[in-house]
Amino acid sequence: MNDLPAAEKQAEMQRMQKATAALPPDARQMMTKMMQQPAPAGAAPMVTPPSVPRSQHQAAGAGTLAWLTAALGVWLFLSAWILGFYGIGAALWSGLIVGGAVVILSLIALTQRSLSWLNAILGAYVVATPFLFAFSGHAVALVNDLIVGAAIAIAAVVHASSRRVS
User: Fold this and answer.
1) How far apart (Å, rounded) are the C-alpha atoms in residues 62 and 158?
2) For residues 73 and 102, is the Cβ–Cβ distance under 8 A?
3) CB atoms inside a 10 Å sphere around CB 69
4) Tens-place pLDDT, residues 76-93
5) Per residue in 114-161, pLDDT tens?
6) Is 67 found in the same domain as 46?
7) Domain span at 17
């Protein structure tokens, strides 16, 4: 700490005082004394590790939601073949087009959070497609679209509405 300019040294001392405020007085005095002593010859300089801002923690959680939405889009894209309802043209094409769009928008939403609102709208559309295109009689396609569409909509709304705290 003795290697720092005076202003940085003063700021570091203030941070240390705030950090040690909850300690008993004798421990606080010992920490202050240690900070004021010069480092032994050949010792590495004391470096305070940077703290990770809360906004980065929230951004990580929001990124997880974008990846989840992208994974749901991939499932929607492939589900007609995996679950065996590829013979229903409307369900197949809706899954291909909307699933692909959800994946693309989710990847872009990693950096542009506002695009998640479009995924929320697409999720609501997926919930409605069995009724719009009259394949609600096919139980597997119906349940798939209801669950996946709702999950896309919910994840996208949470992602879009999460705010960064600085």
Assistant:
1) 8
2) yes
3) 28
4) 999 999 999 889 999 999
5) 889 999 999 999 999 999 998 888 999 999 999 999 999 999 999 888
6) no
7) 1-51
Which token pair is 1?
């700490």
State how far the alpha carbon of 147 is from the alpha carbons of 27, 97, 130, in Å.
57, 18, 12
156 with 120: CB under 8 angstroms? Answer: yes
The answer on 132 and 116 residing in a single domain is: yes
Return the amino acid letter for 43. A
Task: Tell whether 36 and 92 lie within a shared domain.
Answer: no
Of 66, 68, 71, nearest to 117 by C-alpha is 66
Q: Is 131 helix (H, G, I), strand (E, B) or coil?
A: helix
- The answer to the question of residue 166 being in a domain is no
Q: Is there a domain that residue 67 lies in?
A: yes
Asked if residue 142 and residue 68 are part of one domain, the reply reads yes
Q: Is the dihedral of CA 61, 76, 81, 144 positive or negative?
A: positive
| Residue 135 parent element (H or E) | none
Contact 141, 115 (CB under 8 A): no
